[in-house]
Every structure is written in structure tokens, then in C-alpha cells.
Amino acid sequence: MPKTLPANYFRRVLAPGVLALLVVLCLLPFVMLCWYAHASADDFLQATDVHKHGHWGYMAFMYMQWTGRYTSILLWGLFNPVSYAHPSPAYGVVCLLTVLALPVACYWLLRWLLPGQFSNRTLWLSGGVFAVLFLLQVPSTAEAFYWIVSNYNYTLPGLLTLLWLGVLGRHASAQSAAERRKWMVWAVLLAVVVIGGNETNALPMALGVTSFTALRCIQHRRIEWHYVWLSVAVVGACAAAFLAPGNFVRMGQGGRLYSVAECVSRAGVSARKSVVSWLGNGVLLALTVLLAPISYRLARVPGLPLNRLTQNPLFITFLIPASLLVVFFLAWSATSQNMPFRSRNILYLFFLVGWFLHAHGWARYAWRNATRPSIALPGYVQVLLVLWIAGVFSVGDTRTMRGHEPEDNTNNILLAYKDWLGGAAARYDAQLTARYEALRTEGWTPDNVVVEALQAPPRTILFGDISTNTYDWSNQAYAEFFGKKTIRVPE
């Protein structure tokens, strides 16, 4: 007689295997597209400035003349492949490392928040699922992974913030004073590095740390010195980044169009539209319900770092919208424009993490008096929720579930496959390779160089190309890097 499979075979073996395969398939196109990525815009500008000032002189120049983002400056000055050779396979390698760093950072966050609760296989699988959620509707994959200046400026600090949250969770659950000091030292170091990346990371971190420290001191009626020192480090790092002379030089180059009241109003509209877009397809809501039984079990584990980190759900509820409003207000106030996609990428990453922490915190609060050892969702509910999520993942890039802009709720995974397998990425690579060869061909006049415009470039990996305007800063940076006087594409 044939052997029958155990009743829990699907749940323990087959389902994780299928899910792991789906995660790999979702990550695959973003990995493959790394080898078609090319430098653009600031990549050339920063490389030219490094050639002018030297690696270390460039850092001082940027801090004094353009920005206080000291971590980004360090990475731009030392690790921009365009500064050393162009074109170079190193550009694709950096993009690849950034893509792979996303599930790795998610894994470590889960490992530090859930020590001893799940196997390494389950944690890696969960980290991959979280990475797929981010990739599904991140505002711009090009600015998240395939533009190195933005990688160093936004994506890398954002991923380090995930590690910082995990470190804070381990500090909160540490049993000995020595262990608490160790994790707090790591929290301070990571905070200083992250704040030097960009304001989108720095402002929510500063708001969260200082508010949490004040709340802890008030609740416990004593000074919580570990959190006070963390707040001091965060404020000091913010001062070094925000008060840099280069920030004032850059801000002095443009005028502010909106009053404070108008900036507040526009920030509120931008925050609302973003949240509607991120929640509009229902994936996060469905997944939150599916995870409820696991959340119920974890809520009963004493001393779990996740529970320590979410013990004040009302604080998380305050922090999420407050951070969105503050960052959007800063964008409208400083530039009179909405935040660029690269900044919204990081806001979306923080929103994802905050959403699940927020959901677990309130669920834990609601279940605080429950006595049942476990809960379970009805089978038909699980099936319907899984089908809903699968349906959203199957919708192409030409349809959106809910949103206000063409990019809202776009299925980046299917779009990445379209750019890769449809040939757009290969054509883009071939066009730019031919352009570089032509620009380096002897006999070209340095005056009024006209190059062929890119034909149907891939949305997934292209940040921007030169325009018809020779006076555009991107055109000028391009021309200077290749030793030309001017460069443009045809009208």
C-alpha cells in the first residue's frame, strides 16, 4: 500500500518550500537587472568632484559647500565606482549588494526581535517575504537600488535603521547591566551612522528617541540614563548633519514659495496620499490578519524583545503619522516640492516596519487578559486572504488598486520581469555602451555634442538621462565627466 503523507506535511514542508520558491522568483529580476544598470546624474557629478578635490578633499568640500550628510559623503567619496573607472562591472556589483542587503537586514531584524522563537530557515523566509513586500510597491526601484548615489544616501541608511531597531529590542530585553551597555553602544554607533545618511532617516529617529526617552522618564519617575545618552548622541549627530555650512549654501540657492501654514497643509495631503497608496491594495491588511495567531503566541513570551519594543502601542500610533508629517513638511519647506521618490522609498520601508510593530502592539494590548493558549483563523478566511494577496501580486503594472499617481500601487515585480525578459534592459545597456564608445572616439569636437536619445528605457532601473537642454546641471555634469564642452540629445 502506498504511504500516506502526514496530516501536517503541507504546513511544515510543502508550504514553506513553495513560499521560498516564490520569494526567490520575486527577487530574481531585481538581481538580474543589476547587470544592466548604468550611472546617471549625480554619479558623474560626484565622480568629477572627486577627481578635482581628491577623495578626502571632496568630503570637506561637500560638507562646507553642499550637504551635512557625512555618512553619504564618506561613501560617495570612497566607494563610487564611477570615480575609479567607467563603465565598470563594479557598478552592477554595488547594485547587487544593495538588493541582497534588503532580505539580510530583514533577517537580522527578525532574529534580534524574536530570539529562540523560530528556526533560521523560518527567519530567512520571513525576511525574504518582508523584502518582497517592500519591492512590490516601493515608489522607485531605480532610486532604491540602481542609482548608486541614492543607494548610499537613502537605501543603505534605511537598511541600517532596521538593524538599529533590532539592537534596541535586544537592549530592552537584556538581563544584565553589561549586556544592556553592549547593546546600547551598538545602538549609539548605528544611530550616528544612520543620521549622517539623510534627513528622512534622521528626523523620525530623533523624534522617536527623544519622545520615547521623555516618556520612559515620566512613566518610571526616574532618569533612564541609557536612553538619555542615546538621545544626546542622536541630537549631537543631527546637529552635525543639519548645521553643516553646506546646507545653508545649498538652501540659499533657491527661494521658498510657501508659508508655514501652506507647508503644513501640503505635508498633510502628501502623508494621506502616501498612506492610502501603501494600504490601498489590501496586502498589508490581509497579511496582518493572517499573522494574528502568530502574534497571539508571541505576545505570551515573557521578555521577548519584540514585546519590549511594542509595549507602548499608543506611542507607535503617534510616531508613524508624526514622522510622516514632519518629513513631508521639511521637504515642502526646504524645496517647495514634494519629497522625491528616493526619500519616499525610505518612508515606505519605515511604514512597513511601523505597521507590523503597531499591529502587534495593539493586538498584544487587546489580548493582555486572554487565557487561551492559542487562537486560529477559520480555514476559509485563510484561503480568501491568501487568494486576495495572490491576486494583487498577479496584477500587472498597467493597473492600480488605489492611489493618486501613476506609480501608486504599481506591481514592481512584474514590471521588473517585463524590463528584464522583454528586452528593455538589454537595449538600454546596449544604447549606453554605444554612447560611451562614441564619446570617447577620437575626432569628436568638444562643442555641441549631440548623442542619440534613449529609446523606451526601462522604468525599473533608469533614474534619469540627459535632456535637450545643454544648461541643465545633469547635462553639464555629463559633459564635464566625458571632457566635452556641451552635450545634449536631439530636440
Report on the structure:
This protein is globular. Helix 1 (9-33) crosses helix 20, helix 5 (89-113) crosses helix 6 (120-137) and helix 8 runs parallel beside helix 18 (341-366). The N and C termini lie far apart (76 Å). The chain has a two-stranded parallel ribbon. The chain contains 22 helices and two strands. Helix content is 69%, strand content 1%. The longest helix is centred in the N-terminal third of the chain and has 26 residues, at 148-173. It folds into two domains: 26-396, no CATH class; 441-491, no CATH class. It has 491 residues and is mostly helical.
Could you give a quick summary of the protein structure above?
This protein has 491 residues and is mainly alpha-helical. Helices cover 69% and strands 1% of the residues. It has helices at 9-33, 42-53, 55-65, 70-79, 89-113, 120-137, 141-145, 148-173, 177-195, 199-220, 225-242, 245-251, 260-279, 283-290, 292-298, 305-309, 313-335, 341-366, 379-394, 412-421, 424-439, 473-481, and strands spanning 449-450, 487-488.
**Tally of extended strands?**
2
Helix and strand pattern: HHHHHHHHHHHHHHHHHHHHHEHE
- In the predicted model, the low-confidence regions spanning at least 5 consecutive residues are 398-404
Rg estimate, integer Å? 24 Å
DSSP helix fraction: 55-70%
End-to-end distance, in Å?
Answer: 76 Å
Compute the number of structural domains. Answer: 2
Q: What best-fitting shape do the alpha-carbon axes yield? A: globular
Number of helices: 22
* Arithmetic mean pLDDT: 87
Estimate the strand proportion: under 5%
Classify the secondary structure makeup into a structural class.
mainly alpha
Largest sheet: 2 strands, parallel
* Strand line-up of the largest beta sheet: 1-2
